[in-house]
């Protein structure tokens, strides 16, 4: 604050005003004032509203109904104030109960006292995954206002600094403690506590013992001040809701990144999701999963790992989508390997189940667990560096820890936002998407054949069969999506200039071409096993063909997206032997219009293909990162359409039935309208 630039920052930056208050009174030396916040907290203030502008537009919100809106409660604790607002808005298209014409929601506002002395921050390095806080540093020596990012982490300080410096395990001054919600079912408490305390081992890698502890909520006699809303207590909340999810949010000091408090939220119905996917993704190789009544210990183990995953978020760790790519696909069929290493190098990956293991494989672990990356990242973020008294003084040591593991895929961090990178995919496992998805679909075929036996034949109704069949289509779609990412794929390997190689590298031509061929065989060639008559004729009266059309077209459109085609065009500027945009266009058209059976599924897919080319020809994609009109895209599309015209004329003349002849005539008419719009 003593720097001269501080005065300039104050003079030249003006913060937005949320609300203006009348001063009701001053304290004795006029250093504090009294204001009445009642109107502020009962008004529709956009900056703290539960409805953002997008939702207001989507639901056509008109205004806040003051007659049905009020402050529900105000609670004051030593370090925070919690306010609950019950707000009702008049809306033309509310998300539910439309006849009411309104949206009611409860919003919680928190005011939190920050630590008097900020924790020493740790500078973020993108090669290790952490949530961050950002600041603009105008006093930087970089000849510009420099953005600084610090990792978010709890303040762990050794009780015995000398012993810690000698490398001994020591307890922290203040451990991380999670209390269980008083409403938690008794039979689940054990697994929640295990999930929390599974992080003790990674913290031991960072030099701390008993760093994180799980406790039952105290009774009123034990602690009359206890409240889940008090930020002195972090709580795993058990929410009675039909939502299927779990989350691990936290509150951090914007000055240093110190995590002050966290509440893990577990929604009651989430175990249903895990039971279903356990059956669908492991049922072929895992006899224990072939039931709707999954063993309580197995369900408990799944819950334990989900809780540990969400606690990981609350400790500062984002998803690491590269962790499942660290292991060879064939290792997932090895019982000894999976029991030791789990199914990903990090619990923070979205690798939930081992869907690669095949029937007959023995001693397989099917559920995720803590991995080597979790120990590595915890050590990197939480180990105290005694000799470093500033964030900058830590950089050399932190970089050294990264370089020790550089090149080992078990310690690689992959960003969830890297949707172009086949090495960092959600819900994927193994280092070869083609091979992994081939195993996965082979297992799904087994499951589909047996699904009625495992569900409706046991329950004497079709409810579970219908639910699981719908989710099975989603599982199949994910496996397909993992292969699609290979096409136009770019591997991202985060590194510093001192490290060999480039950050971005294009997936090789052979892999991309094989991926398109795989998509032809598993998606474009009708996967009739997905339309099992023993299933569909018992769960729905119609739209059987639509179920398949929707998932086929989803991947066709994904394959022929502006971004993917753009990356293929881009490869021409950096590679000598590459899979080109023209290669993709030719291969996809050939796959969809190949000689063979033309039935209702194939006709739907062919129409969708022509419709997609029309989109590529005419859509003004403002969200792409290149100029569509001045790129090769429309020239390629026009060429493919003209080539297809010739193919369709031949097919029309040879059509074996009237429906197919009409179909080809319709496609020709559609293409003519695209090329020669009226």
Automatic annotation (TrEMBL):
InterPro entries cross-referenced by the UniProt entry: DUF5117, EcxA_zinc-bd, MetalloPept_cat_dom_sf, Zn_MMP-like_bac
Listed name of the protein: Zinc-dependent metalloprotease
Molecular functions (GO terms): metallopeptidase activity
Span of domain EcxA zinc-binding: 294-595
Presence of keyword Zinc: no
Cited CDD domains: ZnMc_MMP_like_2
Domain DUF5117: 3-159
Keywords carried by this UniProt record: Hydrolase, Metalloprotease, Protease
Lineage per the UniProt record: Bacteria, Pseudomonadati, Bacteroidota, Flavobacteriia, Flavobacteriales
GO biological process, one term: proteolysis
Highest taxon above the source species: Bacteria
Membrane spanning residue stretches: none
First and last residue of the signal peptide: none
SUPFAM superfamilies assigned to the protein according to its UniProt record, in alphabetical order: Metalloproteases ('zincins'), catalytic domain (SSF55486)
Keyword match Transcription regulation: no
